[in-house]
Amino acid sequence: MSEDKSQQDERLLELRDRIDSIDSDIARLISERANCALEVAEVKKSNGEDVLFYRPEREAQVLRRAMQRNPGPLTNEEMARLFREIMSACLALEDPLKVAYLGPEGTFTQQAALKHFGHSAVSKPLAAIDEVFREVEAGAVNYGVVPVENSTEGVVNHTLDNFMTSNLKICGEVELRIHQHLMISDVTRKDSITRIYSHAQSLAQCRKWLDSYYPNVERVAVASNAEAARRVKGEWNAAAIAGDMAAELYGLKILNEKIEDRPDNSTRFLIIGTQAVPPSGDDKTSLMVSMRNAPGALHDLLVPFQEHGIDLTRVETRPAQSGNWTYVFFIDFVGHRDSENVAAALREVGACASDMKVLGSYPRGVL
Ligand SMILES: C=C(O[C@@H]1C=C(C(=O)O)C=C[C@H]1O)C(=O)O
């Protein structure tokens, strides 16, 4: 028995020695990589006035490669997540990115910002989508992160409407699986819950669950999930629906996990900025088009995409701000505006539209 134990101890020591030596190799290689990134920064600076340190297309390629060559046993997503953080730290040496997101802290949008830029970016929570647009336009931050559509609840109109008056470009997208939890504070009496706070979108995503388990409890829509969590902190008869980050931030206890009605519930976020992003090899383009309200207008608009073999991923309609029953279409499709078939389709759409704006070509979300 004790013979076994000492054999086991020996084996553990051996393995830990090996891990220590691998760790020192990893540390050396990460430092070597960071020094390369610093040299890249020098080259970029010597190239011109308007230096773009952050290169979304290059980052997407690095992440995709990390997934493709992953030998296991880690999953591709875990491997890419590790590289995401290494790149984030390397980029921060060149120029720490400032990123604004729809806050407050603890929202899913913050989670999306961290997922996209890693933890070395400096992030700033703002109270409204308009403010995120404004802050990026003013140059106070480099990029903004805003939600644009949820797989259960549909489009975030506010984000689309901002593009009608803004000149910002879409530089990237992030998709996040959204898990909603019911949470309470230390003072909440589980059997006396009379009120559940959450953002309207989250209440809608959990509607059936609430109908079954809390049919008579008042559902109170507040400005964000994080705000819902904050309120619950001091209320003995209330609960909140929010995500992991909000529970952690406000020290709440999760009573029921993953209560969203649809297991594949996910939200897509956009990265907004001022930069036109070159092709990464797997890109999407977003387009805003106004059409006269004539018969067959939408059909005319869609024909060029079909003729050039372009895959549409989303079509949304919003009333134009000029009013009088004119419409603006938001169209997302696969491909980069620099590729020949996309450029040809855009020329043809431009010819039949009363107005057209390419909101951006950007790498398809990797993680
Ligand atoms: C190093 C570069 O700059 C940044 C850092 C990157 C990295 O660490 O791999 C990749 C792209 C840029 O955001 C580069 O452009 O290659």
TrEMBL record:
Main location: cytoplasm
Keywords associated with the record: Amino-acid biosynthesis, Aromatic amino acid biosynthesis, Cytoplasm, Isomerase, Lyase, Multifunctional enzyme, Phenylalanine biosynthesis
Classification via Pfam families: ACT, CM_2, PDT
Chorismate mutase domain mapped to chain residues: 6-98
Swiss-Prot/TrEMBL catalytic activity: prephenate + H(+) = 3-phenylpyruvate + CO2 + H2O; chorismate = prephenate
A molecular function GO annotation: prephenate dehydratase activity
Pathway: Metabolic intermediate biosynthesis; prephenate biosynthesis; prephenate from chorismate: step 1/1; Amino-acid biosynthesis; L-phenylalanine biosynthesis; phenylpyruvate from prephenate: step 1/1
Domain ACT: 286-363
Domain Prephenate dehydratase: 98-274
The EC number(s) this enzyme carries: 4.2.1.51, 5.4.99.5
Location in or out of the cell: Cytoplasm
Top-level taxon of origin: Bacteria
Function recorded in the entry: Catalyzes the Claisen rearrangement of chorismate to prephenate and the decarboxylation/dehydration of prephenate to phenylpyruvate.
NCBIfam families to which the protein is assigned, alphabetical: CM_P2, PRK11898.1
Protein name: Bifunctional chorismate mutase/prephenate dehydratase
